Amino acid sequence: MPTHRTESLAIFPNSTGFGYAVFKTEVDLTDCGSVRVRSAKQKMMRTHLKQLIAFHVPKRLILRDPDDPHTRASKQLRSLIGYIERLANKAGVEVTYITRRDIRQIFSIFGIHKRYDIARKIVDWFPEYGYKKPKPRRYGYSEDCHMVEFDAISLGITAHILPCHRP
C-alpha cells in the first residue's frame, strides 16, 4: 500500500464510528471522511484505523481527550482511544489530546459556540467541503452523518492554533 506523509491526522471517534481529517500542512486540509461501524463490529473499526494511520503516516495524531470532565466517553470509547494511542506510539507518531473546552475556546474567538456553527465556519474556510455541510438538527432527529467529520476538522484546527494561545 502506498503511503502519503502528512503533517497531522485528526481522528474523532464516537459511538457509531469515527471521523478523520488529514492536514498536509497546518493550514492545508487535504482530506476528511468518516467510517460508520455498528458497535458489534469493533474489530472492523480497528482495522480501518490501522489502515488509515499506515496510509497517511502522520507526524502528529490528534485525538479528543477521553479524560475531559466535560465529555461523556463510554468505556468502549475510552478503550478505542487507548487503542489508537497504542497504534500511534508503535508507529512513532506524536499524540496530541484536545478537549471540547479547547475547541470552544478557539472558536469563541470568532463568536462561535455551537457545533453546527463551527461546521458552518469550517465550510466558509474550506468551501470544497460545502457539500458535506450538515443541516441544522431538528428535535427528535439524529445527528447528520457528516457532523463527525467536522468534529475531526475542528480538532485539527484547534491543535494547530492552540499552542499559540496557551501561556
Can you walk me through this structure?
By secondary structure, the protein is an alpha/beta fold. The chain has one domain (6-165): Nucleotidyltransferase, domain 5, CATH 3.30.420.10. The chain contains five helices and five strands, in the order E-E-E-H-E-H-E-H-H-H. Strands 3-2-1-4-5 form a five-stranded mixed sheet, with helices on both faces. Helix 3 crosses helix 5. The longest helix has 19 residues, at 147-165. The mean pLDDT is 81.
In short:
With 167 residues, the chain is α/β, with parallel strands linked by helices. Helix content is 43%, strand content 23%.
**Strand order in the largest sheet:** 3-2-1-4-5
Secondary-structure element order, N to C: EEEHEHEHHH
Number of domains in the coordinates? Answer: 1
Relevant CATH superfamily: Ribonuclease H-like superfamily/Ribonuclease H
State the CATH class: Alpha Beta
